Amino acid sequence: MSASPPSPAPKNHLSEQMKPLSEATQKAVFQVLQYQFYPKGSIVLTPGKIGECLYFVEKGLMRSYYFEEEDEREPREITAWIVAEGGVAMATESFYRQIPSAEYLEVLEDSTVFTLSREDFLELQRRYADFARFVLQFTEQYLLIYDARTQLLRMRSPLNRYLAFDRQYPFLRGRLSQSILASYLNMSYYQISRIRTQIARGTR
Amino acid sequence: MSASPPSPAPKNHLSEQMKPLSEATQKAVFQVLQYQFYPKGSIVLTPGKIGECLYFVEKGLMRSYYFEEEDEREPREITAWIVAEGGVAMATESFYRQIPSAEYLEVLEDSTVFTLSREDFLELQRRYADFARFVLQFTEQYLLIYDARTQLLRMRSPLNRYLAFDRQYPFLRGRLSQSILASYLNMSYYQISRIRTQIARGTR
């Protein structure tokens, strides 16, 4: 979104993505979308609730996270997903299986999003064949994003995970706290601090 | 597949999955599917080639793996996926993006599979609306499998990864070599040996 004025928010990302759809379909979709503003720090879904919405992020940043209680020590916070403008946030398993979420969905920057309820999402697919095709493409895109996420998580070296993330998401530079980034990259706060110091010193 | 006779192979899994489709669609799909037998040890895709097929596994076991060269030491073999009967094997990124594969697809047990070319896969979606819906459901299923895979990979404790895998895939017990399982669970051969010894001794 770079240098665009903050208000009125341009409805660009989703409109662009839906351009291949017929005018009738686009109109039907925008009729049921809710355009919403969430201030930084909002929690739009908590564990135990069922994820009933997709969040198409127009501007801002969201993440999903949960606490893993692997052992007797303090539960560890894990960031599962980070979604910026142009992406779609959801509690994947909860949304598709309609079971209680294990995750929080949190707004990390003041954000404007289009929300689409699951009910409307399914109804639009039934009524508009081109929307159903759009959903398939979108789901395939997500499969590839997941594929890249598993590749990153399989890297043994914390430094390599850090560098791979930086290559994949250059537009997130400087937008994440060190602790959130560490919890996304499956490393400790101490490890990420050390890596950043090494990079700053040019020793890596 | 348990106690079923080895031959003629029952064409059960895919037929079951396609039952909701119209007879005409099912017929069109089975006309273009190739029913193939691959002996244990076959490599059906190598790095550098483009993944042109989906492999619907009727009986047997496949995996995808690659070598990660993270540092100056020996490249580490990583098992990305393990797919048994009822599942679909593919080189995800290569198949969807039509770029050279980074992975090997290997047959781990004598396997019978239906292969479907990407061309036929796309053509069937264009011609049969119910097949397009079937593909969307199948892709959503895969998203959930990927979601579970990322959850497993984010677990810090090797023991917990081992136990979570065992819970998710009880039907794979005893079918994977220790080194392949270790490479799937992102741990060393030494770590998995120790875990198995602990479990056998009942100290875990």
Concise overview:
The structure is a homodimer of 204-residue chains. Helices cover 44% and strands 24% of the residues of chain A.
Radius of gyration of chain A: 18 Å
CATH fold label of the largest domain in chain A: Jelly Rolls
Summed up, the domain count of chain A is: 2
CATH first level of the largest domain in chain A: which class? Mainly Beta
Structure write-up:
Chains A, B: It comes from Siphonobacter aquaeclarae. By secondary structure, chain A is of the alpha+beta class. The first copy, chain A, folds into 2 domains: 10-132, Sandwich (Jelly Rolls); 155-204. Helix content of chain A is 44%, strand content 24%. The first copy, chain A, has helices at 12-18, 23-32, 92-97, 118-127, 129-154, 158-168, 178-184, 189-201, and strands at residues 34-38, 43-45, 53-68, 76-84, 88-89, 104-117. In chain A, strands 1, 2, 3, 4, 5 and 6 form a 6-stranded antiparallel beta sheet that branches. In chain A, strand 3 (53-68) and strand 4 form a beta hairpin. Residues 1-9 of chain A have low confidence and may be disordered. Chain A binds chain B through residues 68, 70-71, 76, 78, 80, 92-93, 96-97, 125, 129, 132-133, 135-136, 139-140, 142-144, 146-151, 153-157, 160, 186, and chain B through 68, 70-71, 76, 78, 80, 92-93, 96-97, 125, 129, 132-133, 135-136, 139-140, 142-144, 146-151, 153-157, 160, 186.
Please specify the SSE layout and strand pairing.
The structure is a homodimer of 204-residue chains.
Chain A: H1 12-18, H2 23-32, E1 34-38, E2 43-45, E3 53-68, E4 76-84, E5 88-89, H3 92-97, E6 104-117, H4 118-127, H5 129-154, H6 158-168, H7 178-184, H8 189-201
Antiparallel strand pairs in A: 1-6, 2-6, 3-4, 3-5, 3-6
Helix pairs in contact in A: 4-5, 7-8
